[in-house]
User: Fold this.
Amino acid sequence: AAVRAALERCGSGAGGKAGGKAAAKVAAKARRLKIELGRTLFKAGARQEGGALLTSILQQDMEQADALLPYGEACVALGQHDDALKIFLRLVTQRSDDSAVRRLLAASLGSKDGMALLRQQLAFDAKSASALAFLATIARDHSKLSASLELIAEAARLVPDASAYALQRAHTLEVELRYADALEAVREHCDANPQRAAAGVRCADVAALLPTREQCEAARWRPPSAPPSASPCKGTAEEAALRAAATEVAPDAGGELADGEGARLGKEAPPLELDLLALYFTALKVLFVSGCLPAASALVRLLEPARRQIRDLHLTLIRNENAYYCCAAMLLATPPPQPADPPLAPLYVAGDSHALSPSWRVVRWRGQPRVLAPV
Assistant:
């Protein structure tokens, strides 16, 4: 109480005769101190007093972000997500890179009624698709994946020719390890835009090679039940026969471009074309990670000539998708044996593109053969 009384005197100018700019500085400082006091009281358990102080400051000026942020934070803590969402939607337009604003906005979006509340504040139409995609990114970055998926799925539905939205949707599904659904997201985009092309490869061409959920599961790679060979250079006759029957991929697939290859630079390619190419590359990664290796090999044969038309993709915004594509393509040039039953128990390898390298090979773990499955 004494601290608050002192702050009131400071804000009113009591105890001094400063005027003009000096008085304004004193008032601004007092305001900041009151905000911090209100926030501290609220977090310390004196929620009623802290909330009342923050409310009184906001009543003086509803547009000041310095008070809106702690007030919105208090709303989130109290489960008042309707008010919180209104505040953080306003703040994110002013401070789009503010980590606290984004975190609290994600908390509101991910609340039980978050999506319903958002629909009351924002029209879900083609004009708002970019805003929905932006909010989906914020929600995903703070692990509110259900909200993120709903938002980006809406954006993709509202603007079906936007490859960037389809790509974001597929990536978010990957985070949840929903690989079959990620492939479906790619297929839906390709089916909706059959004649669109990237580096000469049409969506219809890619869609024709994508297996259904059932086909992918049936073709999922399962190693032979026999233990792996003692020497990595020598396999059993069965393994050799299976390897020979594997779908062929050029030995230089995914590798560096030779002199004279790549008539265009990646930085000169239209962003829309790069987005679509990234979506194709993501389809390959998902097929590989899913163990659907025959379909992945077929897709490499379609995409590799297109990739070689564009130089320096690693310097573009799709460098990550390009890296995964190149890694998977190089691995498919030396595929493991084809499916056989009964399947072995998996040993999961988690990581970035480097986690793909040992995938679908067999190792011994505690005396038992295990297949290395990428995550």
